[in-house]
Design a protein that fits this description.
Elements: E1 8-14, E2 22-33, E3 37-46, E4 54-60, E5 64-66, E6 82-87, E7 90-100, E8 110-115, E9 121-125, E10 129-131, E11 134-136, E12 139-141
Antiparallel strand pairs: 1-2, 1-5, 2-3, 2-7, 3-4, 6-7, 6-10, 7-8, 8-9, 11-12
Length: 161
Amino acid sequence: MPFRHKETVEVCHRRTGFVADAYYLRATFMAAMGGTHSLVQYETRYTDEAMTTLKTEIVDDDFLRPVPPSPSNRTDYAVSQKVDAYDDGAWWVGRISAVHDNQSPAEAPELSVRLDTNGGVYRFPFFRLRNHLDWRNGEWVQPGPSRAYVTLKRLPLSCRS
């Protein structure tokens, strides 16, 4: 999918080589590079500790996708539902492991999410979650069955499936 200069995109990253073990960073598309790669500038990653220069990187086009539809601020998530949880400037893929009752009506509903990247369970307010969607053939689709235990060597190197 061709992107326009300065269009906001998401870049998929993997930590340990499993398809489900991904997180997404928001970036700005800067330029196409040779037909299969793109230059992007991250919105939340920096090249220095002073956080003054945003990091730029050349990435494989298979790891780029448009920004998914906005979260609906829904609160009716279900246990085992695949979601993305926003933390540390990235969207981390995981599954709902528990829905917590609020102590007070003034508190935002919280949910526990088991992240695919490390298996850890973390609590998130509902407004830092979104439905996980896959980008396939130019459209957003609900994810298929989990492939967390299938290594990349057996699958195409793409975050789109």
